[in-house]
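Request: When convenient, would you put together a sequence paired with its structure tokens?
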Amino acid sequence: MKLHGAILFVKDLDRMASFYGETLGLPALPASCTTSWPSFEAGFGLHAIPPHIADEIEITNPPRIREETPIKLIFTVTDLAGEVSRLQAAGVQLELKPWGAADGIDPEGNVFQLVGV
């Protein structure tokens, strides 16, 4: 068995698609991308939480870190220091880890990680 992909359920689809696509710079998968289902070459897509559920979710500014969420998207980068600098300059909150990675926070508080290769 092999993992085919992942879905990140989000409250603000446009904002999150912009963050992952434009801010992080992840290329979209045009063949499977729609306005309600943006997906990325990195192997995951975004899906809007239904409005009746989303209305009950509060996203703070800055977002509350969702460390209790049982998933973390991990992205490999060729230049970890360069990516950290670029993303921090764009306002992304990142924390360097002693083992050569950096944890970041997306606009809804989901934790993601960058790992150098």
Notes: Helices lie at 13-23, 51-54, 80-89. The first strand starts at residue 6 and ends at 10.
